[in-house]
Specification:
Strand content: 15-25%
Largest sheet: 8 strands, mixed
Order of helices and strands: EEEEEEHEHHEEEHHHHEEHEE
Shape: globular
Oligomer: single chain
Distance between the termini: 28 Å
Mean pLDDT: 96
Length: about 350
């Protein structure tokens, strides 16, 4: 396990004047939710997620040596066009990670990024986007230090991504990723995401996630503000303890493939996340009426048809429908017949469990 100081390099053995890399990194969906954080993007509780496969960000990083004038220098393009409103977030990210990548002010960077999912679809791209950018920076650092091990490369990439967006640290690896220190999970740490180290039943290895786009608008309360509201939340400590308990409960579930217990834990986590929002001060509601319609329809379908399908939610109105491959046809038929009508413009995205970031 690495400590933060392990990611501060002493010196580089090689130099490189210019070049480019291109990485894709996927989104992820948390099963046990992270909500609330301490300083430096440290989670208040551990989380575990499925890494997705199709919803991803593809980022090309071009770099050219420049005079180090004490400033960061970068152009930011989204789908080939200048994107000035994203620049402050990247500037802040570079400021946070400079101590770990001391070469950043030696280069001018051109960051060209695109998503495989529709822009403004309501799917958060901060996790996939910052994971892809971190992988690119690590590729450059590996050229400066070719002796770097793969374990160090991936751990540091996840560590850097976390400093941009907490959940981004879970988008470097696949298929099941744990972030946050959990006593019963070997190697788990608050500093970066790690692949779940224990046995995973085959039923979870080809799980599907169909994302129902209920509301594609911007959230009225950002996740950052929501996390901050946990500091004085009356139920915060019990919630953090519950996350540890649910993560422990998932260890035998992942091993034995108990879908009934999996569904209980995952749906409870989703509803607890939104309960925290509704009981904070100020309180807020991110679910929409159609979110509740979908949840009720899933419960009805599961009870009547006895099909192992469940929902989870991120910090928004969209619904992630999770189900094993063996019931794929039945569930997709149900979604098309009964749930699409609750989606904005009838839009939904089909995804599945994936393997993490890839070099293009």
């Amino acid at each position: 396990m690495f400590k933060a100081d392990d990611f501060i390099p002493s010196k580089y053995n090689h130099s490189i004047d210019q070049g480019s890399f291109s990485w894709s990194a996927p989104s992820n969906i948390a099963l046990v939710k992270y909500w609330g954080k301490k300083d430096n993007q440290i989670p208040a509780n551990p989380s575990v997620s499925f890494t997705l496969n199709n919803c991803k960000t593809i980022t090309t990083l071009a770099f050219a040596k420049k005079q180090n004038d004490g400033n960061f220098s970068f152009d930011l393009l989204f789908e080939g066009k200048q994107k000035e409103d994203f620049k402050p977030k990247i500037q802040k990210f570079l400021e946070r990670i400079e101590i770990y990548l001391p070469f950043l002010k030696d280069y001018h960077f051109t960051i060209d990024t695109q998503n495989t999912f529709p822009h403004s679809s309501g799917i958060a791209s901060s996790a996939s986007g910052l994971a892809a950018l971190a992988m690119n920076f690590m590729s450059l650092e590996k050229d400066l230090n070719p002796a770097m091990t793969e374990k160090y490369f991936l751990s540091k990439a996840s560590f850097l991504a976390r400093l941009g967006s907490g959940s981004a640290c879970r988008s470097v690896k696949g298929q099941v990723v744990v972030w946050g220190n959990q006593a019963n999970i070997k190697g788990s740490t608050d500093l970066y995401g790690v692949e779940y180290p224990y046995e995973i039943h085959p039923v979870f290895k080809n799980f599907h996630d169909t994302i129902l786009l209920v509301d594609k608008g911007e959230k009225q309360v950002s996740s950052t503000i929501g996390h901050d509201l946990m500091h004085d939340h009356p139920f915060a400590e019990r919630r953090f303890a519950q996350a540890h308990e649910n993560l422990d409960k998932l260890i035998p579930v992942f091993k034995n493939g108990d879908l009934e217990e999996f569904i209980k834990i995952v749906e409870s986590e989703a509803l607890t996340l939104h309960a925290m929002m509704m009981t904070s001060l100020p309180y807020f509601i991110l679910m929409k009426p159609n979110t509740l319609q979908i949840i009720n329809a899933i419960w009805k379908f599961r009870n009547e048809i006895k099909t192992p399908v469940c929902f989870t939610l991120d910090a928004g109105a969209n619904v992630h429908v999770l189900y094993p491959n063996e019931v794929k046809e039945n569930v997709l038929q149900f979604i098309k017949a009964e749930l699409v009508g609750y989606c904005q413009n009838g839009q939904y995205l089909c995804d599945e469990i994936g393997n993490g970031a890839l070099l293009s």
